[in-house]
């Protein structure tokens, strides 16, 4: 199982960072706005998956998630732009 870190852009332009084995499935759960969606993203639809990074172990993914969450919004935007280019 390969764990990944991902960033979702909410309708209010805020960014949510999370980890998952199956990012597409997890993003679908967030979009559903149901009980499996993160509380942060509820009511902030539409959502857009803007960044993914496959890492390996859950521990590695969680460490990268923590590192990303410590970044300023500007630095997170730079990280997203680097992946797009």
Automatic annotation (TrEMBL):
Residues 1-78 form the GIY-YIG domain. SUPFAM superfamilies: GIY-YIG endonuclease. It comes from the Bacteria. InterPro entries: GIY-YIG_endonuc (IPR000305), GIY-YIG_endonuc_sf (IPR035901), UPF0213_domain (IPR050190). Belongs to the UPF0213 family. This is GIY-YIG nuclease family protein. The lineage of its organism: Bacteria, Pseudomonadati, Verrucomicrobiota, Opitutia, Puniceicoccales.
